[in-house]
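Inputs:
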Amino acid sequence: GDSVTQMEGPVTLSEEAFLTINCTYTATGYPSLFWYVQYPGEGLQLLLKATKADDKGSNKGFEATYRKETTSFHLEKGSVQVSDSAVYFCALSDVGDYNNNDMRFGAGTRLTVKP
Amino acid sequence: ETGVTQTPRHLVMGMTNKKSLKCEQHLGHNAMYWYKQSAKKPLELMFVYNFKEQTENNSVPSRFSPECPNSSHLFLHLHTLQPEDSALYLCASSRRGGADYEQYFGPGTRLTVT
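Outputs:
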């Protein structure tokens, strides 16, 4: 079945460093791809998404490009801030049985940014 | 604020207690979900409801009993839980039928079973 693999953490960076969190997927159909972020004590929030190959999702300085040829959706940010410290989840969604939105999540990558 | 609320935010219960978790969405969505998030484990999908009908139950023990009286409300009834059921329980909602429809999550209920 469909699945998502993302780099294991934790990741620790200094403020203003460049961030990459790798995500690869396996899918039989034409899924949409997402990055979610979870801040301490909160639920998951959508960070960005891309719905077809070569689309780039972007939000709050983060971006990710849907690469069908490498089945990847890596998250990048040019200059991280302390406030970016959170857990980041890569996810894919396809339409499954009963017309459900079948969403699969990666294991999550914890990012800590130090001042 | 995602438009999905959950109560209570924190719950401590004994193994013989009965309690319920509540979720409400104000987004006009017609699909709702319960997830379990445990430390060091991936997010686990528990139940899916579409238009109030349960369409997925991922082998969840019967001590967890979901209820969806309408498309805006979702409950998770808990009874005779085990300590390993301690986790963050997340509710989510979405539109239905399109792969590009993201899920919106509530803040979760942190459950501790003593």
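Remarks. Chain A is about 0% helix and 55% strand. Chain A has a mean pLDDT of 93.
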